Amino acid sequence: MVRHVLTMDDLSSDEVREVLSLSADLKSKFNSGIREDLFPRRVMAMLFQKPSLRTRVSFETGIRHLGGASLFLGEDVGWGNRESIEDFAGVLSRYVDLIVVRAKLHDSVVQLAEHSQCPVINGLTDLSHPCQALADLLTVQESFGTLEGLKIAFVGDANNVSRSLGFTCAKLGVDFALASPAGYEFDAEIWERMQAIPGAGQIVDTRDPAEAVDGAAAVYTDVWASMGQEAEQAQREADFSDFQVNATLMQSAKDNAIFLHCLPAHRGLEVSAEVMDGPQSSVLQQAENRLHAQKGLMAWLLNTVA
Ligand code: CP
Ligand code: NVA
Question: Whose Cα sits closest to atom 2 in ligand 1?
Answer without folding.
Answer: 54
